[in-house]
Amino acid sequence: MTDEEILQEIEKRVKESENWNIYHHLTDKWGHPALMLQENCPRGDHQGVNIDIPALKDLLDIVAPYIRQ
Fold this sequence. Notes:
alpha+beta, 2 helices
């Protein structure tokens, strides 16, 4: 898979997730496309500093197949 295909697959899986959404599309310092993610949180007091454990597990499930060794 190319980097672009991996990014598209991650984006698709994030959109299907109950815990995450795409906050911003950007590029890293090398010019590669990157995504900024935001945790969906129903609690009003949550400011995004502490990530909920089920949300973290969901994020790891999304990105784990694409992490290079």
